[in-house]
């Protein structure tokens, strides 16, 4: 389960339908108003990676030179370029630093690539979002604030939600939140107006 700053609805009754030109809620919000302001919110895309292709080298070097050992070796390399203090050949002094920086950069790059693949897999998940009196399947990245979402049993909730309807007679829905808080116990959620 995921938690994002998007309002959605779980299990709308299939009989409930409204014209997109009519008022959507009691505050007088119309579809035109919704379309105008829904674009101002960020998308529902997940990005847990630390780097991009453009910022990998500078950002990785910046992080690596925050370590005292790397700064010490850099100091030795710079000091060895001074002719009065030169103890070894310049290339030999640079070798340990370059090897360490390269190994750590490769490790960080592989870790970030694994995160990228997981993010891509999650972003390609499908959910049913209310569009023009039906629930076509679309990616969870297209969920925006105010969307009505229909979920079935054992589906991942793509955003924060307000439960408006449940097929349970008591209006209850059980949610697993182990991805958020580590608890494997199911939590109960009740419908909004009950």
UniProtKB/TrEMBL annotation:
It holds the Pfam family PhoLip_ATPase_N. Coiled coil: none annotated. It comes from the Eukaryota. Residues 39-93 form the P-type ATPase N-terminal domain. It is a multi-pass membrane protein. GO terms for cellular component: plasma membrane. GO terms for molecular function: ATPase-coupled intramembrane lipid transporter activity. It is found in: Membrane. One of its GO terms (biological process) is phospholipid translocation. This is P-type ATPase N-terminal domain-containing protein.
């Amino acid at each position: 389960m995921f938690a994002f700053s998007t309002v959605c609805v779980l299990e709308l009754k299939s009989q409930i339908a409204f014209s997109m030109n009519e008022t959507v809620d009691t505050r007088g919000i119309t579809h035109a108003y919704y379309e105008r302001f829904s674009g101002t919110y960020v998308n529902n895309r997940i990005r847990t990676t630390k780097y991009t292709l453009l910022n990998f080298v500078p950002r990785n070097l910046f992080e690596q030179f925050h370590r005292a050992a790397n700064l010490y070796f850099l100091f030795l390399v710079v000091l060895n370029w001074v002719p009065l203090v030169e103890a070894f050949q310049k290339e030999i002094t640079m070798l340990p630093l370059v090897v360490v920086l390269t190994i750590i950069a490769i490790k960080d790059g592989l870790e970030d690539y694994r995160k990228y693949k997981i993010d891509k897999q999650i972003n390609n998940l499908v959910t049913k979002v209310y569009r023009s009196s039906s629930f076509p399947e679309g990616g969870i990245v297209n969920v925006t604030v105010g969307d009505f979402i229909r979920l079935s049993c054992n589906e991942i909730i793509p955003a924060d939600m307000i439960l408006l309807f449940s097929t349970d007679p008591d209006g209850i829905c059980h949610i697993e939140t182990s991805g958020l808080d580590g608890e494997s116990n199911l939590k109960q959620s009740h419908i909004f107006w009950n």
